[in-house]
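Data card: per-record layout.
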Amino acid sequence: MSTAVELQELLTDGEEINIVCHDNPDPDCLASALALGRIAADAGIDERHILYSGTITHQQNRAFVNLLDIDIQSFDPAAVEDRPADSLLAFVDHSIPGENNQVSPGTPVDIVIDHHPAEEVEARFVDRREELGAAATILAEYVRALDIEVDSTLATALMIAIRSDTIDFLRGATRAEYEAAGFLQEDVDEEMIRQISSPSVSGATLDAISTAIDNRMTRGAILISHVGRTSERDSLPQAVDYLARLEGVQTAIVFGIVEDTIHVSARSPDPRVHVGNLLRDAFEDVGSGGGHHDVAGGQIPLGIFADYTTDDEQLLDIVERVITDRLSVELNISEDEET
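The structure for this 339-residue chain is written out next.
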């Protein structure tokens, strides 16, 4: 029995499905959720919900949701933790309750479809392929195998997701990504792709990137910087993508405070550095972190710095020192290496 058919058979057991995105979902997560919803509809599930926590602030992500008119709802813990037996819970583009999502740890999960490294993933159905460049690749494979109708919205969403997570097939793309793109190409809306790929940039994002440029610290081929406090969480990956292009830099890490959480974003084409493991090891005792060897992110609740919240400038100084010190220990660099 094929993996796609196994999924289809599991879906026939349900009357409802709650597809939970990870916090602050990106195109890969959103498109995968959309595709799983279409597969669930084909299997006879009428009640389908795509749920998310956090915010959608990245300009491309907002354009993705608005222009493709994706129906997403704010996550309600009661909807998944007190669900009836015929209500299915699915994760796409993430794997474990409580890690990069607001589902309580230990909550039973029915379906997991992911391409990120993870340990001890438990669900009735698990398809996790670390070798792939995007979760959307797996969903495109299912859609094709199950002969699900592909309209321009679904094809465009999956294509953008694959392109986004592989940086236009320049990072982590495998033969499966090219095959999925070939399958989807006939039905994509090229004009929609152009609009979503070139959204306007907010002033807050530009300010955050500028701050990261000013605060950059390089030690050999490693760059660490911060954006201070920002309202635009997704300015961090945009800032680190920009700084990673600096000549001589092989590993770039940018952090910043968004509301009551410290967010960290990392990039590294250096095969000697696995930034997913680096962020996990650096922050697992105070928050969470992880990802691929070249792209990763982390979150640390600001509660550990609660004693310093009365003075924001002091808070920023403390956060900068603590986060930088933790990263320096994991990267095995010292202050006298700073340039």
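Known properties of this structure: The longest strand covers residues 222-229. The chain has a mean pLDDT of 89.

See the next section for split statistics.
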